Amino acid sequence: xxTTRTKVRPWQAVSIRVAENEHGLAIRDLLIANGLMDAMTxxxxxxxxxxxxxxxVGDEVVGCIxxxxxxxxxxLEFMAIKPGVSNGVKAVTVKKLLHAGCHQLRAMxxxxxxxxxxxxLKSYKNVLxxxxxxxxxxxxLTYKRLFxxxxxxxxx
Length: 156
Known about the structure:
By secondary structure, the chain is an alpha+beta fold. The chain contains four helices and five strands.
């Protein structure tokens, strides 16, 4: 019997879908693997629908991006790609996540998609340029915990 393997090309292999609540821990693991969650360890991941897109190869999550719809500027943040995937799958995953995220934001009324990129990822900025993004200005990412025991305001 002669069996031949058919090679699946990355463009056909990567599919994009909206993440369901049960994908929360997989997204958290991707963010940790990409060094994006060092200080935000007490985040809840059980209620994420419909704010994340997933890139899938078969049943495996290989990438994610967060969508924050607003007008006139929507936000695409926290893109993460599974370490160890081939360069071809990585390139297709980035392109498809960006395009699907932009499409979703546009459908929700955003005129622009805005995101931040760490200044240490110069090659990533080049990838974004090749996918039609403009580089605005350098900035610092700030965050504040909004639940739990931390006090928000000082009381007199």
